[in-house]
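Hi Y.,

Following your request, here is the sequence exactly as I used it, all 229 residues.
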Amino acid sequence: MIVADPPLIVRPTPQELDAELDRIAASVEEYRAGLGRDRQLIFDRYSVVDLAHKVVGVGSVGTLCWVVLLESGDGEPLFLQFKEATTSVLEAHLGLSEFPHSGQRVVEGQQLVQAASDVFLGWARFSRRDGTSTDFYVRQLWDGKASVDIPALGPKRLARYARFCGLVLARAHARSGDAAMISGYLGEDDAFDRAVAQFAVAYAERNRSDHARLTDAVRDGELEALPDL
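Below is the corresponding structure, written out as tokens. Let me know if you'd prefer a different format.
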């Protein structure tokens, strides 16, 4: 059983489960159908035993997320995370995506740019009784993250860390686009480097101003917040 930890993890009521159990099962089956045959054979060793709502991080704030616990016959657990996939922000400028399913768009993009993706990466659609639906992409729940303490880095280590980040990003772009065309666009001078640096500084300033506005709104009672979660 998934242990409740409100408001971060909230278990549905028995009434909610009974009302939507068949539709939840249909979403899980759709997810399974999208996996490769080799992964279907592994997935079929597990059965759904529990689920709960989960509050997601800053990048996905405000979207739906389900944590699903599955178990094999000998009690081996598998946690999957069903995260809501919304319409791409690029569609307002580039037209509709070639993928009618937003979850599939996310998965196809991740598999394209990542050197090694989650073997259980997939997508599903949850259709409600009222006719509405939500697209999800699915991945294993790895509830652990690591990050570099940026303020603790000296100039040399910061430059080295930034170089590694740039290499990873460049590799992703090279996998998803025409590497030769990208290289030609960047050219031999530092115009692109300077443009990115200016954008980074402007973006940092926007983050600071947005956070200041948020804290002001909480302090003035415009927004309700739960600190220290």
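Residues 191-219 form the longest helix (29 residues).

Thanks again,
Q.
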